[in-house]
Design goal:
Length: 275
Amino acid sequence: MEIVNEPVLKAIVIGASSDIGTALCNDWIEKSWEIIGTYRGRSEAVLQLEVGLKKLIHCDLASSLSVDECCEQIKKEISGWNVLVLGPGLQEPIGLFSECDIDEWENSINVNFTQQLRVLHRLLASRDKQNESGPTVLFFAGGGVNDAPQRYSAYTVSKIALIKMVELLASEMPDVKFIIIGPGWVKTKIHNAILNAGELAGSSFERTLKKFEDGDFTPMSRVIDCCNFLINGPRESLSGRNYSAVFDRWDKSNFVEDLAGNPNNYKLRRFGNNL
């Protein structure tokens, strides 16, 4: 009997040096995926990760030149990618909008939103166009969709803009699955920004301290399992939506079926139209 080898999946992880990015890379390395990752700063974790990757490339999302050079390198190394992960996140500047340095505020919008779309724009043409299920583009969301958290306006508005952009892209490009995931409170280094800000972070400072004291975090394994479920799931039902790794019941057997009948679920919508 002839043995048919499964095709090797190809992934690009922008922000492989982030904690979630590293965890995704390690999971996919174990599954023998071909992965290109990017980093902004070298660390021991990045050096360890480099062993299992096809290539590790420097990319500073604060610089369009760095982004463009990185994307050119990626296209030379890999073609027909199946998964593109855009994982960088920058909470600074922390503080009331009126008291923030406007240049820092603008840079945060750039890193958290605009430059991530620049990467996508540069790499879209090199996606896998042969596989019937199509490739997946994965972003990460933050808080603020259902309330108005203070002191993180640049970070919050960028993440909300990404949520809407995912829906727009899904509408424009039905052959690609666009998803965005809110990982919840995962124990990652992004929280250092709040801890370093102290009282400037407002109530979030005490809340973050309490999380660390209690060890009350979403397990990284749940975030990775959620990402894998959505990457492997049907494009027609899943694309264009914002998922919570913590609160959504994506691990239940009827999840995809329920979504298919609810086109507005997990999307930004105006509330109170019946008043």
